[in-house]
């Protein structure tokens, strides 16, 4: 009896997986679209011939670089209103040999959620309609759908309870799906860690179209989706998060120092102080032109902040006149809009400007850069095409979590550096030349072997997947993958091999499956 059961199971498994692995290697776009039409309400499927296609495709594009039709566009955009539509799209894609890319907020720096950098036939699953946030006040938890923005998440958590919050990124229009998939750093990470350090459960549709929660997917896959980067392991539909406590009012300051006011000395000092301040205090730095702006969020009162600053960072000469007190939710709006008077409801807006072109790169600094080098760094900001850099301090709680607890491996770094250049229209040459040269110059002062980078600040220049026999290779992936994930890359590749061996979910920087026999 037991044997028969085993045989039946084996037959069933083979039927199912043979069926799926024997998909035609050539895509059948028409059959794919026909399959979608049969399984998903037609008003939720936009094909290239639909008059609304361009509007839906562009709806959450955040980078004008990928707005033109010089890049490869999807066959269709599917906008599910139910988990079953996502499952159906995956099954149609598997059987007809058409890949899917998933888009939550569309903020990917390389646009990988809705465009391909190489010729490819693919569809997009856009989760914008799946964006519920439900807070459980007694448990202080929330379920948040991937299609919600972090502005919607913050607003819903804090609007009725100013002492509840969540630690994630700064820009309110970022989508939860992609953001959490890459870890999510922000102004409260020194106190409460990354967003993914506070994820308790998740619901995901895997490459077989199954809908799984944490118990169903198992701890390896649950580990991988909390920071291993979006687009590799399946489509995460929602996340259960632990909310965190903040005081009824928090204190912020913005203090600018020019090079003549000692900016180079103060930034040099900040490298040691920023990561070792009390966890309640985060000071990030924006360097642009001949100025450094020190921007702080303190989960406490003005008087106690003044005392802490006098004691630990007197070089910044902060006084009570610099204090701006407000609720935590107001602080989120203040950081986003640079204006204290912007109402918190603005955090619910999903529109952003598409007028400025940008290109970003990232680094991590492991040991403090000397004052002499900081003077050189400031001189780069007088050059033609110069952009800005943002320094985000680590240390505190984030530094106390083991490197392999989640895929985010940069925990022991002093700080993250983000390089951003801007231009209008066709004028990108000077900006991009400056960025390339400055990034080369910084190489000697930042983390090495590998030089580390943050997956949520995606940068295709650091490497792209190599496809052999229709599967992305581990060795090709290592080039960029060890920069994003260091020693966690191999474990990510082994999870990928277990959950998506045929490499259905893939893009230019998706995790490749670890080849069998390799450990
Ligand atoms: C203005 C701006 C400010 C930012 N500020 C911060 C910050 O403060 N802190 C920080 O950490 N990051 C920040 N980021 C980076 C941001 O975290 C990443 O761009 C993030 O991946 C965006 O998520 P998204 O859902 O909006 O993007 P999308 O473009 O929708 O997705 C990004 C990637 O994840 C995949 N993906 C999307 N949804 C899912 C899903 N549901 N399941 C599986 N894979 C999925 C996509 O296919 C794509 O590969 C910022 C970005 C921008 C543009
Ligand atoms: C490409 O762009 C041009 C001009 O912006 C537009 O007229 C055309 O319809 C676009 N083509 C496609 C396939 O989107
Ligand atoms: C680079 O980062 C800035 C600041 O976070 C952001 O506004 C911009 O959209 C990013 N660039 C791209 C191409 O996404
Ligand atoms: C909130 O959580 C509690 C404790 O787990 C549970 O009993 C309750 O049903 C939840 N409330 C809602 C609205 O889900």
TrEMBL record:
Keywords: FAD, Flavoprotein, Glycoprotein, Signal. One of its GO terms (molecular function) is oxidoreductase activity. Residues 1-27 form the signal peptide. PROSITE patterns: FAD_PCMH. Pfam families: BBE, FAD_binding_4. Residues 70-246 form the FAD-binding PCMH-type domain. InterPro entries: BBE (IPR012951), FAD-bd_PCMH (IPR016166), FAD-bd_PCMH-like_sf (IPR036318), FAD-bd_PCMH_sub1 (IPR016167), FAD-bd_PCMH_sub2 (IPR016169), Oxid_FAD_bind_N (IPR006094). The keyword ATP-binding does not apply. This is FAD-binding PCMH-type domain-containing protein. Belongs to the oxygen-dependent FAD-linked oxidoreductase family. Its cofactor is FAD. SUPFAM superfamilies: FAD-binding/transporter-associated domain-like.
